[in-house]
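Standup, Tuesday
Yesterday: got the pipeline producing structure tokens again.
Today: sanity-check two examples.
Blockers: none.

Example 1:
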Amino acid sequence: MKANRAYELRVSRGAPTAMIEVLEIGSGEIALFWDVRQDQARRFAGALRTDLAQLEAGDFLDKWARWEQS
């Protein structure tokens, strides 16, 4: 199953950071989240959207879970 069928992306902008969350559609629970600077939010969310559309759900989670830990 493609990741965009399993996960939903939400971006909440505030000052000075933006919160980016990836939610499991089935449960509504947060699978991944990041606080990023405002100037990074658009590019970061764009990369997530691209991978949501192209990767399988498990591959997406494996790839982006590494970013969450750093």
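Example 2:
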Amino acid sequence: MNIKGMDKLEKQLIEIAKAKGLAKGIQKATLRVENSAKDLSPVDTGFNRASINSNVFETYGEVVAGTEYAMSLEFGTHKMVAQPFMYPALEMNRNAIVEDIKEALRKEMF
């Protein structure tokens, strides 16, 4: 038996599952990087560490530090050596991020 429009419906359902899975994977991966960045952030007053948070959008996530001096900590200045925390947090989780997204997609698709 052949149902008219079934192929189109199947494709739409797959796209919905991918989008839902992608969002879940991005959320998990973004939180992973946020937690690592907090762990790696230099601490004097703790204000920079407390300012680190993440946001998840439809197809991507971001981790941000909300202090005015976060960039100076990450990259250094002519008066201060760099104390990176964001880039190392991303790098140390690179493989896990890919796995988080793959796993979430797999769960939604099958």
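Quick observation on example 2: The radius of gyration is 19 Å. Helices lie at 6-40, 47-51, 70-75, 86-92, 94-109.
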